[in-house]
């Protein structure tokens, strides 16, 4: 069984032609970083997003609506790889939560009150 037989062409294409690779400055105000998973078993995903001012008009809220089932469907993931789409959903939420916190640092203290 080849890689192409096991996963969709989109996954193979991103594997063979990586893009958006590297790290952003996690301390930058316009960068959100999400690190999720279980390092003990090797299932870890780091996702960083950088957002411009136009995203304040609803883009973050739209991105938060992305579900693991949407990701799995788009990538045609087989059932044994569904945990990957769950990690991706969690990473998106974590990165956007980090971004939102940087926009309003008082938000975290509001949650605790």
UniProtKB/TrEMBL annotation:
<dbReference type="GO" id="GO:0016226">
    <property type="term" value="P:iron-sulfur cluster assembly"/>
</dbReference>
<dbReference type="GO" id="GO:0051536">
    <property type="term" value="F:iron-sulfur cluster binding"/>
</dbReference>
<feature type="domain" description="NIF system FeS cluster assembly NifU N-terminal">
    <location>
        <begin position="10"/>
        <end position="51"/>
    </location>
</feature>
<feature type="domain" description="NIF system FeS cluster assembly NifU N-terminal">
    <location>
        <begin position="60"/>
        <end position="103"/>
    </location>
</feature>
<protein>
    <submittedName>
        <fullName>ISCU enzyme</fullName>
    </submittedName>
</protein>
<dbReference type="InterPro" id="IPR002871">
    <property type="entry name" value="NIF_FeS_clus_asmbl_NifU_N"/>
</dbReference>
<dbReference type="Pfam" id="PF01592">
    <property type="entry name" value="NifU_N"/>
</dbReference>
<dbReference type="GO" id="GO:0005506">
    <property type="term" value="F:iron ion binding"/>
</dbReference>
